[in-house]
Design goal:
ATP Synthase, domain 1, 8 strands, about 80 residues, globular, 8-stranded mixed β-sheet
């Protein structure tokens, strides 16, 4: 299965970093998912759940807003704050 690198960062530090198969997040214009080889994108995020899918399992984070960038199979999500579940 194809993967890409993803990082979830807050002002406090790194919440998640690793190889993922997809990330679903709450965009300000609606929820969307990024998969491997996604076109470059920068988007703002609203409060809600971020679902991170890996080959070994899934992770769920609740964010209070932020922004995301995807380029060259490298995703960086900058969250204002994160609650891990």
């Amino acid at each position: 299965m194809s993967t890409f690198n993803a990082k979830i960062l807050t002002p406090v530090g790194t919440v998640f970093e690793g190889e993922v198969t997809g990330v679903r997040m709450p965009g300000t214009l609606g929820s969307f998912e990024i998969k491997p080889n996604h076109a470059p994108i920068v988007s703002t995020l609203q409060s809600g759940d971020v679902a991170v899918h890996t080959e070994s399992g899934d992770y769920l984070f609740t964010i209070s807003g932020g922004m995301v960038e995807m380029a060259s199979n490298d995703l960086t999500l900058l969250a204002e704050s994160v609650i891990t579940e």
